Amino acid sequence: MFFSVRDVEFTHRNRLLKEYLDIVDRSIKAFIEASPPVGGLAVFFPSIEYMNSYINQYTPPVWGIPTFILRDGSEAVNAIGVFKENARVTKSLIITYAQNPIGEGINFLEQELIGVMIIGFPLPQYNQWGFLKSRYYGKLGISGFTTTFLFPAISTTIQIIGRLLRDLDRHKKVAVLLDGRFYRYRKYMPKWLMSRIKPIRLFQLLNESLWR
Length: 212
Prior knowledge:
By secondary structure, the protein is an alpha/beta fold. The protein contains eight helices and seven strands, in the order βαβαβαββααβααβα. It has a seven-stranded parallel sheet, sandwiched between helices. The radius of gyration is 17 Å and the shape is globular. The termini are close together.
């Protein structure tokens, strides 16, 4: 099941505000509480900077389950085996960011990963190189934003969700896309994903069990 929370957006302007960081914290807690008693969960932030901002203001993140915070690729390599072992017998959590290798090349079997949450639409960082690329494509008559920022964000989203697509015949798995832009830009996603995204409101995420 793929759920997109439509009534909140974590933009560069608002996502560091306490109101939005509180939404992140409440959403993670609800995601954990709603999940089955056994299985791995992964929460992806759009950038390592935003992940660190959250962790620094909500330290220590205590949810009563084994928790692994992955800040770089070497941490992922060292911790992923332990995470998988824990997830086979109890509820376990990874917190990381969208560009971490765990979101791309690591396979999870059975209950090693039963749920992912992506907090914020994972657009590439706006920098001078991205701006120049966008202008270049614009001069060619191609949407600079779509080519330089939107397509990479969609690709990252698909890579992360792809970690869930194993053993679906034996285990119910859930993806929560916590940002209205996922649903708004769904037409750029593959048909198998676009047709399965269900829009929900933040209230539903915080109060309903998505694994039912």
